[in-house]
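User: quick one, fold this
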Amino acid sequence: MKRAEKAERIRAILDELYTNPPIPLDHRDPFTLLVAVVLSAQTTDARVNLVTPALFARAPDAASMARLPILEIHDFIKTCGLAPAKARNISALSKLIVERHGGEVPRTFEELEALPGVGHKTASVVMAQAFGVPAFAVDTHIHRLAQRWGLSDGSSVEQTERDLKALFPREAWIPLHLEIILFGREHCPALRHDMTRCPICSWAATKAAREASTPRKK
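Assistant:
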């Protein structure tokens, strides 16, 4: 099966499984989404959702966050991975948003990626989910599933993003990003995955992926 045909079938299955998939990070506006995505690096969404209510109650916008001491930000997020660096970045990006953008989260990739702690994936999530700009943020789930399904060679996250954008129509990028993440969490784990029972891997997984998932006989 050609990649394009496989992608079309995968999209149909995902669209049927997930209607209007929710954003897994709790937020109220572009700023709280940006902070939540920064916090989600090497941390589960569930953990982020546990710490952000108190943080956002204390500092609901860039101006109020910029006024908080870094140590106070750290106290709110200390159970998240890389908390010291994230606290510094959240403080710094909040100050820059106030100084450069009048307190409003910028609406371009270039301006977002110029903020401390904001890489291309984070910028893509914010552009897509906060501002409705088509983007395909590639996280670990999307990267491994694209390789497992033969939609990309897995050589790099950047290559995976290019391949998926080429395979799927632009209007599908935003929902598909969430659908693939949800599918990876609910149906398609990285380890000990029975591909024969998976609604997608059972027919879409590459030969290499099947061999890698098959236990070796002793």
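User: anything notable?
Assistant: Residues 30-131 form a domain with the Endonuclease III; domain 1 fold (CATH 1.10.340.30).
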